[in-house]
Amino acid sequence: MILAMDAKRNDLLTGFYEKMVLINTVESSLLNLFAEGLLRGTVHTCLGQEAIPTGVCAALEPGRDIVCSNHRGHGHFLAFGGEARPLIAEIMGDASGVCRGIGGSQHIQLGNFYSNGILGGMSPVATGMALAEKRKGSGGVVVQFLGDGALAEGVVSEAFNMAALWSLPILFAVESNGFAQSTPTALEHAGKLSARGAPYGIPITELDGNDVLAVHAAAQEAVGAARGAGGPQILFMNTYRLGPHSKGDDPRDPAEIARHAEQAPIPRARAGLDPEWCDTTDHRIAAEVAAIIQGIRSARIAAQ
C-alpha cells in the first residue's frame, strides 16, 4: 500500500513538474520577447507562482468546470489545458493566436476559460456564472483566481456575500504573493487578509502555495465541497512573485527575490524527483517553446 501511494505521488509530481516548467518557460520567454519589442502593450507573468494554477486546475473537469482568470493569467490558461503556441501567438498579436491576436495578454477566452485584466473584476462575473451552473444543475464549479491586492476591491466582498447567500458552487483561489504591484501587503491591508471571507461563513483553507501537491490536495477537497452543494470555498495560498509586476518594473531588493527563489515551486518539486530526468525535461520544454517562437517569427517574415 505504501509503495502504491509513493508511486501515485511520484506520477502526480512528475506531471506537475512538467506543467510548471512549461509555465515558467513560456513566461520567461514572454519577458524576453517584450524586451525585444515583439509584444504589444504589457505582460504580467506568474514566475514563482506556478504551483497554484497547476495544482488547482488539475482538480477540475474542463468539460464542465469554468476558470475565470485575471491579468496574471497565462499560467491558468496553460494549466487548464490551453496550448502554448496559440497563447504565445496571441500575446505576440498574431492572427493565429487563440483570440486571433486581438485579445492579447489579458483578454483570453477558450472553451470554459475566461480572463480579464480589471483588478477583482471577474469576481461578479464568476459569481454569476456559478449561479447559472447551479440553476442548470450542471454540477459544474467555477474557479476564480485573484490576488491579495484584489481583496481591497469592494466588488470582491460583494461577490463573497452573494456566493454565500445563494450557496453557489464557486472556489475563490487567492494567490497571495505579498504585493499589489509594488506595494507590500502590510502597507495595503489591515487585519487578517486570509479571513476576509469569514464574516460570510465561507470555509477558508490557508496553505503553502509553493507546494504543488498540497495545493492539489486542498483544491480537490474544496472543489469537491463546492460541487457537492457545500457552497463557496476559499483557498488562500501564500506564494511569492519572482518576476516583476509587469515587464521590468521591479523595485524590490534582488537579495529578497533570490531568497524566495530557493523555495519556489519548481525547485521544491525538483527536490523530490530524479535530477537527470528533471534536466532532460527542462531542456526538452525549452527547445519546444523556442521552436514555437521561431515558427511564429518565421511565419511573420514569410508573410511580409
Automatic annotation (TrEMBL):
Does this entry carry the keyword Oxidoreductase? yes
Q: Where are the transmembrane segments?
A: none
Domain Dehydrogenase E1 component span(s) in chain numbering = 18-252
Keyword Oxidoreductase listed? The answer is yes
Keyword annotations from UniProtKB, A to Z: Oxidoreductase, Thiamine pyrophosphate
The protein's required cofactor(s) are namely: thiamine diphosphate
- What is the protein named? Thiamine pyrophosphate-dependent dehydrogenase E1 component subunit alpha
Species this chain originates from? Dongia sedimenti
